[in-house]
Amino acid sequence: MHWTNAIAMIIMILSGWGIYDDYVIIPGLHFGDALRLGTWAAPSLLWHFAGMWLLAANGLCYVSYGLITGRLRERMLPIRFAELVQTVRDTLKFKIEHDDLTVYNAVQKLLYIVVILAGIAQVVTGLLIWKPIQFSGAVALLGGFQAVRLEHFLGMSVIVGFLLVHVALSLLVPQTLWAMLSGGPRLPRKEELS
Amino acid sequence: MKSPFRPAKPPDPALLDNHRGLLLRLERRGFIRGGLSLGALAMLTGCDVSSEPSVDKALRLVSSWNDRVQAALFDPTHLAPTYPRSMILKPPKFNAYYDITEVKPVNAQDWKLELAGLIADKRPWTAERLATLPETEMVIRHICVEGWDYIGGWSGPTLRSFLEAVGADLHAKYVAFKTADDYPSSIDMATALHPQTLLATKYAGAPLADPFGFPLRLRMATKLGYKNPKWITAIEVTNQYPGGYWESLGFNWFAGI
Fold this sequence. Notes:
heterodimer; A: about 190 residues; mainly alpha; 2 domains; 9 helices; globular; B: about 260 residues; alpha+beta; Sulfite Oxidase, Chain A, domain 2; 4-stranded antiparallel sheet; 7 helices; 10 strands; about 20% strand
């Protein structure tokens, strides 16, 4: 599910940048041709409205699996403030080792929760930008059409910001990547040990 | 419920000591090496996949699937929000596939509205006859596919009242338009019959100005801007998919909002 999501996210971000360019939100901020999926608005829109199905279907599977099995709660909670401060302090001292890949530290937990919520927010604001009249009540609640557009842009910024840190850290701790591809560290059962 | 991917018994944490050495080997070199591989991978995206015909075909297939999803999402009784007249932008924004200086005005005296397809009375209409239909006014938000929007005030007969007056088959699938600026367009029947779908003849209470479609244009509160053809010269009711100018270039056909 992670890699399907990675592909879907990249499709959505790059095609979104192609769509953004026709009417920019931040004056002067343009995304170059190399950063866009689609040579102009029409193909970018085609990509965006095809990628949304992949993103939403995979995201729905991921969140419902995580909620039903309790995996999300088990992995992401609780987040203790003291632990959070400690992890930040360690990180600033370049102490970013993982004793156990299967246990997230407090900062990881917080960032993963933030990015999952940002992903959900993107689906909601995206739907509202797509259908601002059919869902006119919800659009008004979120401050109007242009406000929802801005929120969709900010959601993207959060996800891209996360991605930069996420990819940089996985390059620093490459064992995590291998673990993802090979199915995680092999943990023999206790019987096998003795 | 426990994750089926977790071992039945938790592992002995001491085991992970074996891996600790690996994890502690954090090197700047590793980061640079990883970054380079990732960069090399990203270079592959330089080849533009969407210009590949098979990819384009697949994407357009999803787009026509999205047409059906949008038709299902469209609520024919849901009205778009309306605004006070004081919010009307004057003049409205001009947008077309050419510049405003290239607009070719239509002469009202020579203008006729031709009818074709599944319509009982196909005699052409004049501007005077159109004016005899009851007029509806709406102040609505115009939303462009590019992302900008403005409030506009439009009046004219509803497309529904016109289609009823000419005896059109209201169970047909499509209503298609031809225009003086060679901008063919078409919409679904459900949207054609929506109360906020007008054959607009006026903007902000005054006759349409030349750049905005005089003497007759379509204005729908429930579709993106490019679905609203200006300078309409012919209307056809049909069951064959008529397409449109931007649609043939890859924009989505339904384009409901």
